[in-house]
Amino acid sequence: MIRIVTRSRLAALEWAVESAQNRVDEVQGAADAAASCHTRSVQRLSTALATARAAADGHQADAEIVRDLLKRAEAELVDTQATVAEQAEQTKALQGELDRITGAVVLLNYGRLVSIHPTNEAARRHAESLGCPGDGWRPGSGGPASEVAWRISALSTFAVQDGGGAG
């Protein structure tokens, strides 16, 4: 089939082809720009991801070091607690041994050392000579010695207290 195309129709078709080509060029340019933008975004995100992974690896290494230090510190703490408990038992045993050997006691007035005596009775007599009522003696209240007017304490208990004050 033969079709006759007029000059005006041919011009219209050429214009439509040119217009379509221009539109194709515009769309292609926009697609290229979008692809370029996407490529740059992917590159930025890839770089950021690599940086974040490197930082995370560094933090994991730091965390492992801290875990190791913590384990060592906990082990040292357990050892130290065991040593302190052992030393406390030894101190208590030595106090008892000292009390058995010497039997010595200290007379305290509001927690301050007044004198050292070989027996409780000797300490009471001395306290009475200093004005303490003879009938005011009772078992220790367990309170701080600094809050009790007169107290008799084993020499060993007094000797190991911080600063020499009996508890």
Walk me through what this model shows:
The protein is mainly alpha-helical and 167 residues long. The protein has a domain at 94-164. The protein contains 3 helices and 3 strands, in the order αββαβα. It has helices at 7-102, 120-129, 155-160; strands spanning 105-109, 112-117, 150-154. A hairpin with a 2-residue loop joins strand 1 and strand 2. It starts with 6 loop residues before the first helix and ends in a 7-residue tail after the last helix. Mean pLDDT is 87; it is low at 162-167.
Helices and strands in order:
Layout lengths: L6 H96 L2 E5 L2 E6 L2 H10 L20 E5 H6 L7
Antiparallel strand pairs: 1-2, 1-3
Radius of gyration: 48 Å
User: pLDDT under 50 segments (min length 5)?
Assistant: 162-167
User: Which class best fits the helix and strand makeup?
Assistant: mainly alpha
Strand content: 5-15%
The rounded distance between the terminal residues' Cα atoms is 125 Å
Q: What order do the SSEs take from the amino end to the carboxyl end, as H and E?
A: HEEHEH
In which range does the helix fraction lie?
55-70%
Largest sheet: 3 strands, antiparallel
pLDDT averaged residue by residue: 87
The tally of strands reads 3
